Structure to design on (289 residues):
């Protein structure tokens, strides 16, 4: 695998929000006045002709999609259209699903992720995942964040733990109770702890499968703010059923429809304001799905 490339300073972070509300959904501005993208245009993950079968059933069909560095990519679509399946393909979690058969190509920084010489466990250290339901370990807050570092045989320092908790916007709430059980935190705090646990090992990509769907509006809003901040440093791919959330926090949006077809993938603004495909418009406006 190629080593993580050290990047120059991120491109302009002029993230002026605009209130463009066609279809009644506000879309964050992701281009500058000249129409140039604010995020990086480097591709981190490429999927080519990706098909996934569970036994005879095809869950993804011929998906071609590039995920860009230090952007938030949202994946939306009706239940069962293959969103989680897609996410699991891009850190090889589908390896753990016996019935799953993945065909086609997934590249991570140009390297074939399904190549014979790739260690999926090592890969998952660089492409972390956060799930729908917060799943902290029944350990202390500190030990939860330290977990990945310990598993990898890396040094655990108080500084690393603090940095991860700060990056996950949780530090101020837990700094005086690091030795207490993670299970005593609220759901929203537990989810931010899981994000801290994921980022403590310094991954390049963070995959999130409906990370806020089990949370109340305040906790959801904290997670959304956090995702926005994380995208300055990490590449974030998020599955969500919440259309407003996708519009608010993502740079690009991929719309999957039933049968595992990627129907449209473009700048979030374009998808929510003027999609090419009528089915996307119907889905976004609630006429379908
Ligand atoms: N482990 C599995 N074994 C067999 N079939 C599966 C498995 N996981 C998913 N599927 C099937 O693959 C299809 C896509 O499922 P997937 O979980 O990716 O959808 P999704 O878009 O994430 O849905 P949701 O929004 O409900 O989470 C569905 O038809 C589902 O029944
Ligand atoms: Mg799912």
């Amino acid at each position: 695998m190629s080593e993580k490339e050290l990047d120059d300073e991120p491109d302009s972070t002029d993230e002026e929000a605009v209130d463009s509300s066609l279809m009644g959904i506000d879309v964050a501005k992701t281009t500058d006045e000249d129409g140039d993208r604010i995020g990086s245009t480097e591709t981190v993950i490429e999927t080519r002709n990706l098909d996934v079968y569970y036994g005879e059933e095809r869950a993804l069909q011929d998906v071609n999609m590039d995920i860009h560095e230090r952007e938030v990519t949202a994946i939306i679509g009706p239940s069962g259209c293959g969103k989680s399946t897609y996410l699991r393909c891009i850190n090889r979690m589908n390896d753990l699903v016996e019935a799953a058969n993945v065909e086609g190509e997934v590249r991570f920084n140009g390297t074939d992720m399904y190549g014979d010489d790739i260690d999926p466990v090592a890969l998952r250290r660089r492409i972390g995942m956060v799930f729908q339901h917060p799943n902290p370990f029944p350990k202390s807050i500190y030990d939860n964040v330290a977990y990945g570092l310990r598993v990898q045989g890396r040094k655990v320092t108080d500084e690393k733990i603090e940095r991860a908790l700060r990056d996950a916007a949780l530090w101020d709430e837990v700094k005086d109770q690091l030795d207490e059980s993670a299970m005593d935190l609220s759901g929203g705090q537990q989810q931010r702890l899981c994000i801290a646990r994921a980022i403590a090992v310094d991954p390049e990509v963070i995959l999130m499968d409906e990370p806020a769907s089990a949370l109340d509006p305040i906790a959801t809003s904290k997670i959304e703010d956090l995702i926005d901040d994380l995208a300055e440093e990490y590449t974030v791919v998020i599955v969500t059923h919440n259309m407003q959330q996708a519009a608010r926090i993502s740079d690009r949006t991929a719309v999957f429809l039933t049968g595992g077809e990627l129907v449209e993938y473009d700048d979030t603004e374009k998808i929510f304001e003027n999609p090419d495909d009528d089915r996307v418009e119907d889905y976004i406006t609630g006429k379908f799905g």
Q: What stands out?
A: The pocket of adenosine-5'-triphosphate (ligand 1) is lined by residues 54, 59, 77, 79-85, 97, 99 (CB under 6 Å). Strands lie at 43-54, 57-68, 72-76, 100-108, 111-112, 127-130, 205-209, 235-239, 252-257, 261-267. The mean pLDDT is 87. The two ends are 40 Å apart (CA to CA).
